Amino acid sequence: MPGQTSVASDLVDTRRFQRAGSLLREVIFELDAAGRLLLTCRAWERLVGTPADAWKGRALVDLFHPEDRDQARALLRTAISRVDSPARLELRLTGGTQPRWVEVSVTGDPERLGGVLGTLVDVTARRLAEEAATTRERYLGAMVEVQRRLLEPESAGDLYNAILEPLGRVAGASRAYVFEFHRDGSGRMLQSQRAEWAAPGVSRELDNPETQGAPVDESFRLHHLEELGRGEAVQGTPEVFCEGITPVLKAQGIRSLLVLPLRVHGELFGFIGFDNCDEARAWSHVEVKLLSGAAGALSLALEQHTTDALRVRTETALRRTEAGFHLLIEGFPDPVVVHTTDGMLLSVNPAMAKYLGYQDPAELLGRHLLGLVRREDQEVARRHLEEAQDGGLAARSHEVPLVRRDGQVVSADLVTLGVLFDGVPARVTVARDFTERKHMQAQLMLGDRLASMGMLAAGIAHELNNPLSYVLSNLEFLHRALGPMPRPLGAEELLEYQQVLEDAREGSERMRQIVRQLKVFSRVDDAHDEPVDLHRVLDSVTQMAASEIRPRARLVKQYGTVPAVRGNEGKLFQVFLNLVINAAQAIPEGFTDTHEIRLISRVDADGQVVVDVRDTGRGIAPEHVRRIFDPFFTTKAPGQGTGLGLSICDTIVRALGGSISVDSAPGHGATFHVALHPAVRTAPVV
């Protein structure tokens, strides 16, 4: 029967859907028009922890964290109208003590009105790795600031207050403080608070009588004191400490705290503590390790400033200060080097030696930092180091290839800060493995190119169809005119046929140029930098985007005399295609006589080659100007933009050592400035 045949067919399709899904690492699913789960695969249970059958008929948004559900609903609404390309978003799953992240990709189901097809991919590991890397970078800056303050002569009498603020802020604490141990007349160990930093809105407890002269054995349990004596950290909620001190901690609003020992001349001198009054959160292993390094540096500074050390003031004290700095970088999880301002390596931590394939960090001492970089990339690395001023953070180089001992090349992300090392200005550089982010950027760039190609497909087809039409028309004319049999041609006929062939050749050349432009634009994996003719790139871009520009504005090319730039033709094509398309889309159709898009090339006062992409469109609101280069930020309607175009432009230009900026005001258009380095250095314009 027909009905039975339809049911059987649906059953077969369902089994095929589930069988195909079992072969994938991703979870694939199908939703009905109400957003309820219809079909999924075996991978669902591995990701969610609940059998797929238990979820059928439930709304997909219930899978996500309550704070992310509005975003999930908006994503599904967007997907219904997008059957050509998926919409994507990273969301948190509900439940669990630790957040779990998934990338949700959804698209409208062309076979089911209002239905949605999609996938879920677990991206928790990547998110955690990115958060850990960000935490390490943030802590490194704080550690360098702590070391700088400890070395300042004016901090000698106020060591505690000099460092509590940067440590408290980077640790996300409500309070940071120092207690010192001392004994009463009977020899009992007491603790008294000596310094404190409190976040805005948090009560200060320094003058609280309960923080002065409290017995240590009534605050810490015996095993806690043993851990502190061994130099280990103690942390937990107020309940894990002695019963007598728990009410005092709770009265201060403390929900969790971290205590790090201070040891002076081998003895337990006191501790540095951090309170959290917002949540009962635990400090991670990486955070504890880095804060312990700061506590160690403070301990060494305290040794330096005890009575004996102040009286002696010898070279030994200087070595102890240097040892404090070494303590900070030796335990740092990421690769770190200390080098002179001109790049000579003074200190290398074990993580850097391992990263570059060396057994002993001493093998790298005395070498030049640029010697670890490929010859063709040394200029980029040199510019990065020049940007690092003493005490300041260098602009990050998005990709600096380093050469390992075995010759293998690894991509690193460098951050450089100015420091004092052994009393003289030096620099500390931390490297993070760039490989995973480079892969992600390549995927985003590819997605952006595909989106641009999809949007321009109709216009490109039109641009190809016009020359193709008159090529075919001319060839058809020749075919009919010459006929099947050879015959002598008169002079007039010969001239006419030559003109016809010339027209056909011109049309073929036009098609060849369009195909060349597509080929250049498709070179997504070509990372080779070479001298690039910017005018040639701009001409190709305007031809490719002609269908977007023509109904909206006049195109004006105001080219100056500029040298070739150092870059990659395909990547620069992508940058300027994004900027030109954005300029066109900022102008309404039908007003060609009153609007223009102007491309200006020039050399600025610093010798850089600058391209201005200027439009007379609607402009950018002031509150949006500072965010337009952020990933996934867009002011376009849902389904009309991913928010990646300008972010990718910024990534590409910065990787080439250049810069991109914008001037705009609502109703007065926008001008994007792209500054690039010439292929051959030129003297700045005076």
From TrEMBL:
UniProt KW Nucleotide-binding keyword: yes
Keywords: ATP-binding, Kinase, Nucleotide-binding, Phosphoprotein, Transferase, Two-component regulatory system
Enzyme class: transferase
SUPFAM superfamilies noted in UniProt: ATPase domain of HSP90 chaperone/DNA topoisomerase II/histidine kinase, GAF domain-like, Homodimeric domain of signal transducing histidine kinase, PYP-like sensor domain (PAS domain)
Histidine kinase domain: residues covered: 459-680
GO molecular function: ATP binding; phosphorelay sensor kinase activity
Example GO biological process: regulation of DNA-templated transcription
Catalysed reaction, written as an equation: ATP + protein L-histidine = ADP + protein N-phospho-L-histidine
Residue ranges occupied by any Phytochrome chromophore attachment site domain in the UniProt entry: 155-291
Annotated Pfam families: GAF, HATPase_c, HisKA, PAS, PAS_4
EC number of this enzyme: 2.7.13.3
Top-rank lineage group of the source organism: Bacteria
Ranges for domain PAS: 13-83, 321-392
UniProt xrefs under NCBIfam families: sensory_box (TIGR00229)
PANTHER family: HISTIDINE KINASE, SENSOR HISTIDINE KINASE
Similarity section: In the N-terminal section; belongs to the phytochrome family.
The name this protein goes by in its record: histidine kinase
Organism listed in the record: Corallococcus llansteffanensis
